[in-house]
Amino acid sequence: MVTENSPNSPIHSSPQHPPPSGVRHRPPRHHIPLPPTVPGHVELNPLLMSRHEALIRYNLGAPPTTASAFGNNDRWMLEAATRPNLRSMTIDMSDLIPWPIIVHASNINPLVVTVGDVFAAVHDALHTLVTEHEYRLVWLPNAVVGNRYWNGMRRLDLLNGRHWWAGLSKSQEGPEMWNLHLQR
Fold it and tell me: Beta strands 164-170 and 177-183: pairing type?
């Protein structure tokens, strides 16, 4: 019998990667887009936009303070993420993982989501440990979990090696929702 304090407990298991032969699938999305919080069109800060070559170089495995913006001063992380300013925004990664990332304005400026808030929220969301339920959502429900493949995994580990920021683009799912693009 495995108990919480036994050596075979998930708490004492060493982190492992998903099975190489595992079959990933996209779980159905179950969300209702929220109504807009500001009237009219919302524009994304050009620093955050998805383009052929992203203006920001950032490996999501590292802290947001390691991100660098090409051709910008040191205050770029304090810039508003959108115009008009939003207090929150939603980032969708459903092509890789089924959990949206909700970005809220931080204490730096509680009235505006900043570029830094976006990177902090993405980092925090992707460094969250995967639960068995979440693992089963991403891998087929009959995947082997007896060996606790999911234990110790972060959501970042489910991105198939795509850890580099490639920008955001407007989502068709809602008025203040953006798709996160990543590259290897």
Answer: antiparallel
- Point out which residues pair with 59 in neighbouring strands: 164
Separation CA 77–CA 5 (nearest Å) = 43
How far apart are alpha carbons 6 and 25 in whole angstroms? 33
The pTM of the full predicted model, rounded to 2 decimals, is: 0.77
Q: What is the pLDDT of residues 129-149, one digit of tens each?
A: 988 788 777 765 545 555 556
Distance in angstroms (rounded) separating the CA atoms of residues 47 and 73: 12
Q: Residues 39-77: pLDDT tens digits?
A: 678 999 999 999 888 889 999 999 999 999 976 677 899
In 3D space, the residue among 26, 31, 39, 66 whose CA is nearest the CA of residue 174 turns out to be 31
Nearby residues of 97 by Cβ (< 8 Å), 6 or more positions away = 138, 155, 158, 159
Rounded distance between C-alpha atoms, residue 124 and residue 120, angstroms: 6
Q: Which helix (H) or strand (E) holds 133?
A: helix 132-138
- Pick the closest to residue 155 from 106, 91, 86, 111 (CA basis): 91
The C-alpha atoms of residue 14 and residue 9 are separated, in whole angstroms, by: 10
Helix (H) or strand (E) holding 115: helix 115-126
What token pair was written down for 54? 């992203």
